[in-house]
Design brief:
The protein is mainly α and about 280 residues long. Helix 7 (about 155-170) packs parallel to helix 9. The protein is elongated, with a radius of gyration of 20 Å. About 70% of the residues lie in helices and about 0% in strands. It has a domain at about 40-140. The protein has helices at about 1-25, 55-70, 75-90, 100-110, 115-130, 140-150, 155-170, 175-180, 190-205, 210-215, 220-230, 240-250, 255-265, 265-270, 275-280. The structure holds 2-acetamido-2-deoxy-beta-D-glucopyranose (NAG) (5 copies). The site of one 2-acetamido-2-deoxy-beta-D-glucopyranose (NAG) has 8 residues, from helix 4 and helix 6.
């Protein structure tokens, strides 16, 4: 029993490593201009075990749910890996149990063992792609924990949670992503705020500057992003500040910038950042 568990963990580490290599390779082909980590946004299916069609998904799901209910990290990890296999072929089967899956995933994310957090991030990443579950509060809670873990002391964990967040942005509608991400803009850890600022650039790159200003259905998203940018431009953290400047500079090129920015950000804050905005306007 102990040995098989150990072997499973070894296998998992190997998969993660292989995945990492593949990612480094893929990044060279990527044409994506947003700020990403040192990997591409392409999601491969080679990480959490091979892509195998499960013969009896109903039975496997039943057993997995029973394991999740035990609320132990070992059994939950086993179950969640089976659930990933199910999600690849029968995502709709998981719908009635998503709230239990959510709770289990959130609690694995909070585990103190780095490899468990990493597995949970990989699972979250795949679920963003396969299930695209944006149901609240599950989604926001999960995103909040992923963001929190971008300040984890283990570099591999930081890598994996950042990757999960990038995947989320590609697969989940921007309005949901923006809502969940901007909620963490006031986080006390500078690494988390810096991640938020990085992700905002990616979101705007994906939307495109013209759509950012012109799409009526993005009105609320635009407002949320402007408000956070206005705060970030005077943030105490260099990277956060710098990302905010980069993004504002990009958006400033649009003729509607001033109108919308002044309309969305409150006057007090506008006064406070007046100097920074003017400097940016005339900087090259
Ligand atoms: C990286 O790409 C090269 C060619 O593009 C390929 O030969 C090599 O096997 C790839 N490495 C990995 C780890 O996928
Ligand atoms: C990459 O970007 C260039 C210029 O924007 C474009 O012409 C090219 O088709 C893109 N390539 C891919 C693979 O998307
Ligand atoms: C899981 O879903 C099934 C229906 O497919 C339902 O009968 C069962 O109560 C659900 N269990 C939990 C814990 O959500
Ligand atoms: C999802 O999980 C989180 C963390 O355990 C919890 O706070 C939240 O209420 C859960 N959502 C549902 C609908 O169970
Ligand atoms: C980070 O976590 C991995 C497990 O995924 C572990 O092997 C490694 O030793 C950890 N690194 C540090 C610096 O703790």
């Amino acid at each position: 029993m102990k040995l098989s568990k150990f072997l499973n963990l070894m296998l998992l580490e190997m998969c993660i490593f292989h995945h990492y290599l593949t990612c480094i390779n893929k990044s060279k082909e990527s044409n994506f201009t947003g700020i990403m980590g040192d990997y591409s946004i392409t999601v491969e299916h080679d990480l959490l075990g091979p892509l195998e069609r499960i013969n009896n998904p109903h039975e496997v799901l039943r057993q997995s749910i029973a394991k999740l209910k035990q609320n132990q990290w070992e059994s939950s990890t086993e179950a969640i890996l089976d659930i990933i296999q199910i999600s690849r072929y029968y995502p709709e089967m998981l719908d009635p149990n998503m709230s239990l899956i959510n709770r289990s995933l959130c609690s694995l994310m909070r585990n103190t063992r780095p490899h468990i957090v990493r597995t949970a991030s990989k699972v979250a990443m795949e679920l963003f792609e396969t299930i695209k579950c944006t149901q609240r509060p599950e989604f926001d809670e999960l995103v909040a924990i992923l963001l929190q873990k971008t300040a984890h002391m283990n570099k591999s964990v930081r890598h994996d949670v950042n990757k999960a967040l990038d995947t989320m942005i590609v697969h989940i509608p921007v309005s949901h992503c923006t809502r969940a991400i901007t909620s963490a803009a006031g986080h006390k850890n500078p690494l988390v705020r810096s991640t938020v600022s990085r992700l905002l650039i990616t979101i705007v790159e994906l939307i495109g500057v013209d759509s950012f200003f012109l799409s009526l259905h993005l009105k609320d998203t635009r407002r949320k992003i402007f408000v956070v940018l206005a705060k970030f431009i005077i943030d105490g953290n260099y990277e956060t500040r710098n990302n905010a400047k980069t993004l504002i500079k990009l958006l400033m090129a649009h003729e509607d910038f001033e109108t919308f920015f002044n309309q969305d950000v409150d006057c007090k804050l506008l006064d406070k950042i007046d100097k920074q905005i003017i400097n940016l306007k005339y900087s090259t």
